[in-house]
Amino acid sequence: MFNKIRRHIVGAVTILLAVTIIAAGCSNNSSNDKVRVAEVTRSIFYAPQYVAIEKGFFEEEGIEIDLTTTWGGDKTMTTLLSNGADIALVGSETTIYVYAQGTNDPVINFAQLTQTDGTFLVAREKPETFAWDQLKGSTFLGQRKGGMPQMAGEFGLRKHGIDPHKDLNLIQNIEFANIANSFASGTGDYVQLFEPTASLFEQEGIGHIVASFGKESGKIPYTTFMTKQSYLNENEDVIERFTRGLYKAQQWVDSHSAKEIAEVIAPYFDDTPIDLIETVTQRYKEQHSYATNPILDIEEWNNLQTIMDEAGELPKQVDHDILVNTEIAEKVAQ
């Protein structure tokens, strides 16, 4: 049975399929260098994207970015499918969900931004020495069923001999926006959190980071830039220049300190102290979450599908060359 995320995406595909087919012939051509990007959320996890904008790397390639935060995988994909955006930044699993519904204008992953999961395991009590079997019998606040964070989290737990549905009191009925508040209010012994909340909780003594699900799940195309095949066909030059601007930013992030990166991306996080942005950036750099080039390779793609399959959320196996275009990224990275 499709999970909630997939049901939303399926609904979007069903309603918008006819519109998408018609609109495919009406796309803007490459003479329009304004590119509308819909990001799934606003996150320090996406630092290279903001660096590319702030350091003028997209502008150097003749690209003007119109960035919108769409807050959720289903909303982001709906925005892309309905021509509300030219490019989406969201988890690659969404392209598989859409493809499984039989669309004739599939969504193609063309540039990878992050290559690990971005969540951390936070314990209420700080152990003298952490061991994964300490979680057995505990109350665990997980992420939304079927979403990439939860699937990667479950993969990490199983890796250490923990069945998340048998060995834990797993809570998954709390809305994403309320998970952190629920833990802060006293619910749960452990929680799976994104940054900067995980580090903020540690600073405030609410919880303690004891493990990284990004390290446990290995390299996966966690967040990628994607576009409809029709847009790619008609605007390949724009996509190539966009990818080149991104690659410049990826290289810049890889060669600069967390402090320097934090100073550049701070305008995107008005409510977050710059020292916290630096802490989070350093944590992501240390675990190699930021991809250093835009190439989404076969091994990462297969790892993604393995994680989805083990979670019972993979609708069908899809070959790498069907939903991933590496030609542009490889050309840019040469």
TrEMBL record:
SUPFAM superfamilies: Periplasmic binding protein-like II (SSF53850). Pfam families: NMT1_2. Keywords: Signal. It is found in: Periplasm. It comes from the Bacteria. Belongs to the bacterial solute-binding protein SsuA/TauA family. This is ABC transporter substrate-binding protein.
